[in-house]
């Protein structure tokens, strides 16, 4: 994908539409959870009101001496209640009944209002709604007007179902209005608090990726204290640091190109000077022969400086070529290469087991160990001891010397190119390149301790068994 292909999603495919749809969906789900108990409560209230009306209707029988009323009036009372049969039983054993002209009939469902469990009410309520035929229902329970009076009513269920359906439509309409209002409010709040800042932040990221060096946005100026504000400020800081790094990298690239050209010519000049110096070392003049070694050492340091500078100005460390080899053999080889420095009682001590294996770039590890050993010996160390320990899948190689330790200035800029030299006259490139090489192999180079008794450096690498 090219930079030009990166575009922010449209409303229909973006975060805004998803938040809107999910908000409406969640509100509707909440309304359904509210509707279920409310429809069950509506049915219960309707049935209690039916018992109350039936109780009032049957009280007409108590106004007559023989508890008998005109048949026409009895039918009118039943029609007013919407019942087929009404029966009443008092606490003292009195039984009253309004039947009208209704013959004996088969009751389809019986409801005892004394049983008001939540789940039975829900089940019975939805059963009434889903019923497609008119059933004969019998409801019995204590009258709301008298706690010791049991009222028993038989009636058609259809009017109850129609009332519940009408109530459901009212709830549905009210739920839709509530859902739209709630969704609009939530969507507006989320749009203001999250979506708009996220689109702005995403747009800034896309623009920054397309042109990192362009000055854009004011993400670091936000006053928000929440996570979005932290993300905006951190993005602003990241932009500034990456921009500075890119500018510094461009300057270093230009410097590296110039250094490479200068280094090529300078190495040729130094090679010629070294040849002349070799001839001077064979001169018959004692003074000339005495000064020639010092001049040779100076030329060697100049050549090393050119090589280190050239290596550092490359794009990055060379890609490591991993191989499995014996660490002790490599350590002994490094000790042999330091032979010209191991004079006047100086020693390179290898405390590495013969069977210790290491999987790494052999040439790079050789270069690192030699650099550390050479630094220590040139700083005045008498002995340099190398040990290797494998713990928890990590191989740690320590290089300890008994030299004077590192100066405060060296510690302040350790591993910083051109500043963190551990010895007088050094450039600091050796340690910087050594750490870069170690990290390129998945390890690290650290200074464990330093003082009057010497310095201890640590090289860590994944153990041979951990490297594929």
TrEMBL record:
Superkingdom per UniProt: Bacteria
All copies of domain HAMP, residue ranges: 192-247
Cofactors demanded by this protein: Mg(2+); Mn(2+)
Top class in the EC scheme: transferase
Pfam families: HATPase_c
Alphabetical list of SMART domains matching this protein: HATPase_c, HisKA
Reaction equation(s) it catalyzes: ATP + protein L-histidine = ADP + protein N-phospho-L-histidine
Ranges that cross the membrane: 15-36, 171-194
Locations listed in the record: Cell membrane
Domain Histidine kinase: 261-465
Membrane topology qualifier: Multi-pass membrane protein
Transmembrane helix as UniProt keyword: yes
PANTHER family named in the record: SENSOR PROTEIN CREC
Official protein name in the record: Signal transduction histidine-protein kinase/phosphatase MprB
Organism of derivation: Dongia rigui
